[in-house]
Structure formats: structure tokens, C-alpha cells
Amino acid sequence: MTDDLAGHYRAIINGLGENCDREGLQNTPQRAAKAMQFLTRGYQQNLNELVNNAVFESAMDEMVVIQDIELYSMCEHHVLPFIGKCHIAYLPQGKVLGLSKFARIVDMYARRLQIQENLTRQIAEAVESVTNAKGVAVVIEAQHMCMMMRGVEKQNSKMKTSMMLGQFRKSQATRLEFFNLISTNR
Ligand SMILES: Nc1nc2c(ncn2[C@@H]2O[C@H](COP(=O)(O)OP(=O)(O)OP(=O)(O)O)[C@@H](O)[C@H]2O)c(=O)[nH]1
Ligand SMILES: [Zn+2]
């Protein structure tokens, strides 16, 4: 698998007019293949294994927010990185999820070829399915290298996406509480 990918990288690099046999590039196809496999390792993961039963009974029924989870993803249109932060909130009803699992869920979906909108939705639906929460909210703010390094070359624009499920979608007060919580301490 890595060797196959490395062969493709060799063709790309040679196709750019470079020479993969020169010293600095000799191991590059192999390295680039491994790096790309790492950046897309989310394809090898699944939600059940990742959560590993780290769901705990709890009487907590107020909003829980996990803020500023950094994410690195790759846009599916250009295969260039987009980089940002994810904020997740949920309203537990009897069960809370192990804290690190939120970051693992973000990474599992981020480490695939993505668009930000779908990534946002997938994270929200995963948290909902694992916790059976009364509501889940996810906000992602990210900068896309395809907008910065090429194309329109806008260095400061950010894309913000949100996905509200359950109570967050129904109740404006709940949504506002979440937006308030994530707009402080930054
Ligand atoms: N909605 C959305 N669009 C994205 C995302 N990542 C990249 N894109 C956009 O995907 C679009 C692809 O447009 P095309 O016209 O097919 O490709 P292109 O000629 O490379 O487009 P330019 O970026 O405008 O040069 C561009 O507008 C990108 O900005 C994302 O996460 N969400
Ligand atoms: Zn792109």
C-alpha cells in the first residue's frame, strides 16, 4: 500500500519536472506516501473502537462544552490542508463521554478528505449517537490552504460552520448559551 502510493508520488514529482533520483528526493516518494497515510488515517478508524466504551453514567444534565480542539484536515477538492478549531457542546441525559474521546472523534473525521461542512455534521452526529444526548452542537472555524496558498490567495478569511442537533436546534436560548460559552476566555 505505502509502496503503491510512493510510486504515484514518484510519478507526480517527476511530472513536475523534478528528478526523483537526485539525492534530496530519493526517499521523498516513500516519506510523502507515509505522511499522506498519516493525514488520512481516519479511514482506518471506526467510532466504536475509538470510543472504547468510555461512556459513563452521570446525573449531569447541564451543558458540557469542549472548546478549542485543534484540527488538521485535508480539503477534498484540492487535497490541501485546512486548519482550525472545533468546539463541541452537548446536553447529557444520563451518560457522559470520556473527555479525550471528543478529540479522537474530531480527528477520526478530520483525518480524511473532507469539506468543512460535512466534517462539522459528522462530528455532531457521532457525538449524538455515542452519548444519546438531548442535544449536540459543533462549531468549526478553519482556514483553508486552498484559499491562502493558491487561487484567491486570501490570508485572513475564516470559514465558520455550525451544526446543531436536538435541543440546540430547537431552542435559541440553548444555542445562545453555547455561543456565549465559546466566545469567552479566548
Ligand atoms: N464549501 C466548501 N468549499 C470548499 C472547501 N474546501 C475547498 N472548497 C472550495 O471548493 C471549490 C472548488 O472549486 P472549483 O472551481 O472546482 O476549483 P478551483 O478552480 O480550484 O477553484 P478556486 O479555488 O476558486 O480557484 C473552491 O471554491 C474552494 O474554495 C470546504 O471545506 N467547503
Ligand atoms: Zn480546497
From TrEMBL:
<dbReference type="GO" id="GO:0046654">
    <property type="term" value="P:tetrahydrofolate biosynthetic process"/>
</dbReference>
<keyword id="KW-0479">Metal-binding</keyword>
<dbReference type="GO" id="GO:0005737">
    <property type="term" value="C:cytoplasm"/>
</dbReference>
<keyword id="KW-0547">Nucleotide-binding</keyword>
<dbReference type="GO" id="GO:0008270">
    <property type="term" value="F:zinc ion binding"/>
</dbReference>
<dbReference type="GO" id="GO:0003934">
    <property type="term" value="F:GTP cyclohydrolase I activity"/>
</dbReference>
<dbReference type="GO" id="GO:0006729">
    <property type="term" value="P:tetrahydrobiopterin biosynthetic process"/>
</dbReference>
<dbReference type="GO" id="GO:0005525">
    <property type="term" value="F:GTP binding"/>
</dbReference>
<dbReference type="InterPro" id="IPR018234">
    <property type="entry name" value="GTP_CycHdrlase_I_CS"/>
</dbReference>
<feature type="binding site">
    <location>
        <position position="146"/>
    </location>
    <ligand>
        <name>Zn(2+)</name>
    </ligand>
</feature>
<keyword id="KW-0554">One-carbon metabolism</keyword>
<feature type="binding site">
    <location>
        <position position="78"/>
    </location>
    <ligand>
        <name>Zn(2+)</name>
    </ligand>
</feature>
<comment type="similarity">
    <text>Belongs to the GTP cyclohydrolase I family.</text>
</comment>
<protein>
    <recommendedName>
        <fullName>GTP cyclohydrolase 1</fullName>
        <ecNumber>3.5.4.16</ecNumber>
    </recommendedName>
</protein>
<dbReference type="GO" id="GO:0006730">
    <property type="term" value="P:one-carbon metabolic process"/>
</dbReference>
<dbReference type="InterPro" id="IPR043134">
    <property type="entry name" value="GTP-CH-I_N"/>
</dbReference>
<feature type="domain" description="GTP cyclohydrolase I">
    <location>
        <begin position="8"/>
        <end position="182"/>
    </location>
</feature>
<dbReference type="InterPro" id="IPR020602">
    <property type="entry name" value="GTP_CycHdrlase_I_dom"/>
</dbReference>
<feature type="binding site">
    <location>
        <position position="75"/>
    </location>
    <ligand>
        <name>Zn(2+)</name>
    </ligand>
</feature>
<keyword id="KW-0342">GTP-binding</keyword>
<dbReference type="InterPro" id="IPR001474">
    <property type="entry name" value="GTP_CycHdrlase_I"/>
</dbReference>
<dbReference type="InterPro" id="IPR043133">
    <property type="entry name" value="GTP-CH-I_C/QueF"/>
</dbReference>
<dbReference type="Pfam" id="PF01227">
    <property type="entry name" value="GTP_cyclohydroI"/>
</dbReference>
<keyword id="KW-0862">Zinc</keyword>
<comment type="subunit">
    <text>Homopolymer.</text>
</comment>
<keyword id="KW-0378">Hydrolase</keyword>
<comment type="pathway">
    <text>Cofactor biosynthesis; 7,8-dihydroneopterin triphosphate biosynthesis; 7,8-dihydroneopterin triphosphate from GTP: step 1/1.</text>
</comment>
